[in-house]
Here is the input.
Amino acid sequence: MSERVLGLLLAGGLARRMGGGDKPLASVGGVAILDRVIAALAPQCDGLILNANGDPARFATRGLPVVADDVPGFAGPLAGVLAGLDWAARERPDIATLVSVAADSPFLPGDLVARLTAARDAQGARLAVAASGGHTHPVIGLWPVDLRADLRRALVDEDIRKIDRFTARYAIATVEWATAPVDPFFNANTPDELAEAERLAGALGRTRPAGHSNA
Here is the structure.
């Protein structure tokens, strides 16, 4: 039987470069980026949760559990990962692995979880991370739930904020994706990038078959 993996959508950032607000709720091709992420990831996971701070009611229509950081001071995506790991340990004890993704990435691949888990297992690694165009994407990767005590210690006691500083302590498998016809890990952090995502979505819509979940 295939491994059960819980999906964690990271939407806890401050969106400073977008002028504030919730980047995942911006539309690309007439569809909210968050809904694109959900459509791409849901078939790959045994449930999804959303990491977001502030009033969770703004995400209520998605029907997902909303989990806030419990490390103060907007400690970054590692705090969101920790919140997801803690939720999984408490609410889904049947789950041993979590996959985190950026909730502002409209073109996530349909083979994300399968390729990450295969590489982790083949290499005997503790973690796995996605890469494209020669760059790793630290927020997109696999996390064992039993890593949460180590992660809390790093965040709270050692004040570690960069994902790479934490993950460097463990064996990690890196999986590369092609960037054509679009980088699957493109994310919209600025108004210009949102406009580029709109252009890319239009191009994909003209080249991919109808009903493709990552279009």
